Batch of 3 targets.
Target 1
Amino acid sequence: MTAATTTHTGHTKLAGVIGWPVAHSLSPRIHGFWLKELGIDGAYVPFPVKPGTVEDAIKGLVALGIAGANVTVPHKEAVIPVMDDLDQTARRLGAVNTIVVEPDGRLIGRNSDGYGFLENLHANAPDWSAEIGPAVVLGAGGAARAIVGALLDAGAPEIRLLNRTPARADSIAADFADKRIAVGEWTALASHFDGAALLVNTTSLGMRGQPRLEIDLGSLPPDAVVNDIVYVPLDTELLKSAKERGNPTVDGIGMLLHQARIGFMAWFGGEPLVTDALRNFVLGS
Ligand code: ATR
């Protein structure tokens, strides 16, 4: 039984995740685990919100006294016009994944994806830090944008951005307007591995039901960290190949776990930690 079902609803802090579809979101498990572990009187639930109705849903958060929400596909951009303010990261990315309702009802849009990405690497590849060498980023969707921003902020000397559709990579490079971003050829992935300290897959390739990520790691330095943000399956073909040749690897679930801390602390308080117990609970093992 969760804390929420045993407490006085008048004091129970509420939050949730807004998406469509949202039933498969792991966020309720993450927040449910922390609420119980920290003994906080709260509840976190999925809110299935159809495209086109997100503005009403967000206004409903305020009307219902809900502390805030995570925002996932397809609403991360659509919620922006309803926000009263955006933090610097959400503004720069043009995407919100965490909404905080202030005590006066003001809506603040934040984005914790880049934070989750960096924290996951720091926790699981302790010898890596952004400034030690070039990063190769595969993909140019919303996740890539958050990751590129985080790597730039953390001092990466060079980011090689490779995407099937080069115009999307060009658009990220143009928006950040930072000379450290170099857009390269998707058809020649391996030619960009020279001296790399990090290789990250942000594409959906390798995800269950999606095509394979065809990649030859032969020219990747043996000490380069390989991170896949795909976490279904957890042990992707990319991570398996990297492990086989001895590269340090970091799987994708940690980014999701770490990004969740920002919302939890804002809505419920406390000091939620990313532990093996949380990870095993969320993965259902
Ligand atoms: P997210 O916001 O989660 O990052 P997205 O915006 O849908 O998701 O981005 C998906 C990424 O996977 C993109 O980089 C996409 O490449 P395109 O920009 O060329 O579409 C990449 N991707 C998806 N399917 C792919 C495929 N079959 N081959 C190569 N890249 C693919």
Target 2
Amino acid sequence: MESVSEASSIRTNNRIYELRAAGLDIVTLSLGEAFFDLPTPSFEGMPGTQIHHYSHSRGVPLLRQKLAGYYETCSGAPVDPETEIMVTAGSKAAIFMTLTAMLDPGDEVIIPEPLWVSYPDQVRLARGVPVMTPWYEQVGDLESYITPRTRAIIVNNPHNPSGRRLGAVEMLSLHEMAEKHGLFLISDEAYHEFVPEGEVFVSALEHDPEKRHTIVCNSMSKNYGISGWRIGYLIADQHFTRQVIKLQQHMVTCAPTILSYYLAENFEAILDHTRPQIRRVVATRNRMAGLLADRGVQCLPGDATFYLFASLGESRLDSTEFAERLLTRYGVAVVPGAGYGASCDRFVRVAVGAETEDRLVRGMHALADLVEATR
Ligand code: PMP
């Protein structure tokens, strides 16, 4: 465990919770979720004999059917709810179990930076070796990092923290690499509803409907605005799912039953409720990117999610010093880029899902002011 670090975004946010509890007004641009207006759940009328107990370790059947149908609609790939889905305690658990199931000690996993903070440590915990690639590498360049020990490539699409969506050409290139070198492609699609109005999301399953090498990990945390419920899932071929289910049985038994029933019953209704709010937060993201650009702060290219990965430009501070000064001098919380990979210390992550427009604008100006003040 000594070689495993704390999740930097969670460490930042724990500190913010403490500062806020102490009465400080912090413009919170560090939280990895969008706050939605949601109806308070009622469990009235749910099957009383079942909701309080363990459920099938693959997940409550109706929820699996809903998720399978949902993925079929968005990817065109058939998903068998009986054999190809497992519901678990968030996509974080899905990714961890995926890695644990597939890696032998010393197997390498390619992780493009900026990376989601848990990937490298999850690979280490699974006794694998994370192989990070710097942020400026293109998808096609990843092939040069493949060795005889490479077992998988992880992509996050749409991407936290840049907001980038992989296009069809990039997706095809990843599938070709996976086929050619016998690798798994782990596609973390936790933000897949967070695309701009009128745009489409391309799931990795679209090009590998038989799931020969693709494992999709996804979540209800972000799209449904219920990160604290801890409901995520993975989609893989039946052989892989059968293996990973053993980890579920030994680690968590099943995802929370009462919440799974609720989500199955209200699957479409909640999405109908969150989708307009998702569109609004993505539009806000893009407005804030524009505001930063007007102030001379560049972000990595992207138009999706509610994140921006903002460059520190000519600031002499590294990302940890910058985030610390932004917090203590301006009362604005962001996550240092260093947590997203060694190549990312000239960036900070800005999330726009948890604040009002006027406070966001205040936060963007503070960030730009600090870049200017520390040239
Ligand atoms: N993947 C990415 C890229 C994330 O940003 C997060 C949460 N911040 C997760 C996975 C995990 O989310 P959850 O476990 O709530 O599904």
Target 3
Amino acid sequence: MEQVVENYKYEGKELEIVTYPDPVLTTVAEEVKPEEFNDELKELCKNMLYTMYNAPGIGLAAPQIGLSKRIFVVDVDYDREETSEGSGEYTLSNFNPKVFINPKFKLKEGDITYQEGCLSLPGVYEDVKRYEHIVVEYQNTNGEVQEIEANELLSICIQHENDHLDGIVFIDRLSNLKKNFFKKKLIKQKKLQATT
Ligand code: NI
């Protein structure tokens, strides 16, 4: 198994998460080339996991940290509990990190609808219809080809993150009316943030 997820240690550098409408989020990401499977890639994946846990989120794709590469990380299993009520400090446990590089769907079937959110689209939560059951082939951080079968939340999360690699954000999966509404809202929100 890959070194980054085996005996995972919660450590790394926090990376800046880019928000919509940053153009990197609407760009199709590039494949990770064979010569790029090195320690630098492992370090990047470690830092992406750390950033995801701290956000907190259940998935993070490389375009979300401004890197247009076909890489994403997920963990739909970890626990996050406030150290003491109102402290604002959290203890994370039961990590189950997964790293996907150059993923490809081998199977997509069934339907599932779930309310999604995205670290790059703050404040937007909407129902999105996805495939219920998927099989994905991908490379781990050593460049070895792996396959995973996923259902329910893991399946949803993988599809959401894979969309990021294709320059698709989850509001693109909504009706045109809703999509345009949230686009305007997010652009306005970002402008407001930039001026305050
Ligand atoms: Ni997202």
